């Protein structure tokens, strides 16, 4: 009997405040989408770090005609200098730091440049002799970059030692900033959702103050009177959480694993199934915020 009564009151409240309930659903949907987007972005950052840090290389660029480094004062790298650098990299003293060493000639560097900047107008103006030859060094531990840098930064024939991890760190910094911005927007939107839930419950309680007065007179418990109001906000927030989950899944499935995966096949993107890891948290977050907001509002505006 009480369960049927609670369901009846819940349905009545949803019908009376349909516009406000839809507003709660939409605001919760937008705010939880931002929360989920920040979470997915962090998952993507962690996955990219694990993927690229295992493949990070140190590039030892050799001197060319236009090099300005002090170690290139004698001009372009000589065959003897190149052989000495390669011998040091492949020596036993560096075996604990260096995993593999690959030589890239100027012609190969031009080919990679043309592939990378195929749509750029400058691609036809660059020639092989303008690009440096280099040794691409895979490290056993990417954190040991300084060992290579200190050993070769002033070696004759070496122009510069470049750590690809620096570029990755810059990229990940930008992505972390984007994640923080998304979380900030999500926090503002969640606050709006909480205030909207509180307003909706307050109006609902005010419009049914006569019914709740009668219920108090006939001895209805506090839980029975308040439960329909609380469920209104919780159901609206849960629907918003489900919509947010569906949107994030669609973005991960069609955008990340579809379009972007085809455009950047060498990049490891998170799978759409990883959205399911965030789904319970998003729905729970929406429901808890709506429930707490409803209870606090009822304590103030609905004396039982």
From TrEMBL:
<dbReference type="Pfam" id="PF02687">
    <property type="entry name" value="FtsX"/>
</dbReference>
<feature type="transmembrane region" description="Helical">
    <location>
        <begin position="224"/>
        <end position="255"/>
    </location>
</feature>
<protein>
    <recommendedName>
        <fullName>Cell division protein FtsX</fullName>
    </recommendedName>
</protein>
<comment type="subunit">
    <text>Forms a membrane-associated complex with FtsE.</text>
</comment>
<dbReference type="InterPro" id="IPR047929">
    <property type="entry name" value="FtsX_actino"/>
</dbReference>
<dbReference type="InterPro" id="IPR040690">
    <property type="entry name" value="FtsX_ECD"/>
</dbReference>
<feature type="domain" description="FtsX extracellular">
    <location>
        <begin position="56"/>
        <end position="161"/>
    </location>
</feature>
<comment type="similarity">
    <text>Belongs to the ABC-4 integral membrane protein family. FtsX subfamily.</text>
</comment>
<keyword id="KW-0812">Transmembrane</keyword>
<dbReference type="Pfam" id="PF18075">
    <property type="entry name" value="FtsX_ECD"/>
</dbReference>
<keyword id="KW-0131">Cell cycle</keyword>
<feature type="transmembrane region" description="Helical">
    <location>
        <begin position="177"/>
        <end position="203"/>
    </location>
</feature>
<keyword id="KW-0472">Membrane</keyword>
<keyword id="KW-0132">Cell division</keyword>
<keyword id="KW-1003">Cell membrane</keyword>
<dbReference type="InterPro" id="IPR003838">
    <property type="entry name" value="ABC3_permease_C"/>
</dbReference>
<feature type="domain" description="ABC3 transporter permease C-terminal">
    <location>
        <begin position="184"/>
        <end position="300"/>
    </location>
</feature>
<dbReference type="InterPro" id="IPR004513">
    <property type="entry name" value="FtsX"/>
</dbReference>
<feature type="transmembrane region" description="Helical">
    <location>
        <begin position="21"/>
        <end position="45"/>
    </location>
</feature>
<comment type="function">
    <text>Part of the ABC transporter FtsEX involved in cellular division.</text>
</comment>
<feature type="transmembrane region" description="Helical">
    <location>
        <begin position="275"/>
        <end position="298"/>
    </location>
</feature>
<keyword id="KW-1133">Transmembrane helix</keyword>
């Amino acid at each position: 009997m009480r369960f049927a009564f609670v369901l009846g009151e819940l349905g009545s409240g949803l019908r009376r405040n349909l516009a406000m309930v839809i507003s709660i659903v939409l605001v919760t949907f937008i705010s939880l989408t931002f929360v989920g987007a920040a979470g997915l972005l962090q998952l993507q950052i962690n996955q990219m770090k694990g993927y690229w840090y295992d493949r990070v290389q140190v590039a030892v660029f050799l001197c060319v005609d236009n090099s300005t480094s002090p170690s290139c004062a004698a001009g372009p790298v000589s065959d003897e200098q190149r052989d000495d650098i390669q011998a040091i990299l492949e020596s036993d003293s560096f075996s604990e730091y260096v995993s593999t060493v690959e030589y890239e000639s100027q012609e190969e560097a031009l080919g990679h440049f043309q592939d990378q900047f195929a749509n750029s107008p400058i691609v036809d103006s660059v020639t092989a002799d303008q690009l440096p030859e280099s040794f691409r060094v895979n490290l056993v531990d990417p954190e040991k970059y300084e060992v290579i840098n200190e050993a070769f930064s002033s070696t004759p024939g070496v122009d510069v030692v470049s750590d690809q991890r620096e570029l990755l760190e810059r990229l990940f910094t930008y992505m972390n900033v984007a994640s923080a911005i998304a979380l900030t927007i999500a926090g503002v939107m969640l606050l709006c959702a909480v205030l909207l839930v509180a307003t909706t419950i307050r109006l609902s309680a005010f419009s049914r103050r006569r019914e709740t007065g009668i219920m108090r007179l006939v001895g209805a418990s506090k839980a029975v009177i308040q439960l329909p109001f609380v469920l209104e906000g919780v159901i609206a927030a849960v629907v918003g959480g489900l919509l947010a989950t569906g949107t994030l899944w669609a973005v991960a499935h069609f955008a990340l694993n579809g379009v972007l995966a085809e455009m950047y096949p060498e990049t490891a993107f998170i799978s759409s199934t990883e959205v399911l890891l965030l789904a319970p948290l998003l729905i729970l977050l929406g429901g808890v915020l709506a429930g707490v907001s409803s209870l606090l509002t009822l304590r103030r505006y609905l004396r039982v």
